[in-house]
Amino acid sequence: MFIQTTGIILKSFPYGDTSLIAKCFSKKRGKISLIIKGARSKKSSKAAHFEPLSYINFIYNYKPNRNLQILSKVSFVEYWSNILNDLHSVTLSMAILDITEKILLDEDPHPDLFSVLKDVLKSYNEKKHNPNLLFWYYECALLIHLGLKPTLDVEKLPGLNLPKLEAGTKSEAIISNLFSGDIKSIDKVSIPKRDSRIISDYLWMLLCYHFDNLNNVKFKKVIKTILSE
Questions:
Q1: N or C, which terminus of the chain has less Cβ within 10 Å?
Q2: Measuring CA to CA, which residue among 150, 149, 186, 151 is closest to residue 171?
Q3: Of the candidates 79, 111, 129, which is a domain's last residue?
Q4: How many other CB atoms are there within 10 angstroms of residue 27's CB atom?
Q5: Number of domains in the chain
Q6: The whole model's pTM is what?
């Protein structure tokens, strides 16, 4: 069965002499693994479509008993190349892709989360919002769309003590707005360093509590430094 969908490339790596394997968050089918045969050969132009930050339209031959689905056709919808010109944005964007790849289960569709990811990466590309706010906004979206939205007045979970949001002057209000999807109302608000640390730690601790494979996220220490500034 052939399936056509759009998708965002989360990661890719060489396979064999000329092929690629790509992890893709697709709108229709969730996270899937594709094999792109011959993509690295001199005659092929397909490899460029499978760089992280590529937003593509593609067709693949789906077989339920196969871990790697075979690509048939691909074309660009967008490539968010402007992100690469800003170290802050590219670090956070690549972290978002890495976190998404580690959290999502194979073939578990989340079309609303897909739309959020697309909008967040597009905003990074167009420099529309504070990069840190965009990162926190996406963390909140992960918790919401995966059914794990917290109750903000609950500071303890079994085996976990969360940072006290009231310890910051703006932390609770900012996180409340992020969970409501209202990023525009806080985009121009100055965020004290103390609040940045509290917000960053609060959301990261929640994600790590629910998903135990996030300890090996790339650039974790760099990300923490950036988000605390």
A1: N
A2: 186
A3: 79
A4: 19
A5: 2
A6: 0.93
Q: What tokens does 22 get?
A: 């790509």
Distance CA 61, CA 7 (A): 15
Closest CA to 139 of 148, 127, 151: 148
Distance CA 107, CA 110 (A): 9
pLDDT, tens only, 126-163: 998 889 999 999 999 999 999 999 999 888 899 999 99
Domain shared by 72 and 91, yes or no? no
The sign of the dihedral angle between the CA atoms of 184, 200, 148, 157 is negative
Structural domain containing residue 34: 2-79
Q: Indicate the residue type of 199.
A: I
> Cα dist. 109→29, 64, 99, 112, 226 in Å?
5, 15, 16, 9, 31
Strand, coil or helix: what is 113? helix
Please name the residue that has the structure tokens 């074309």: 75
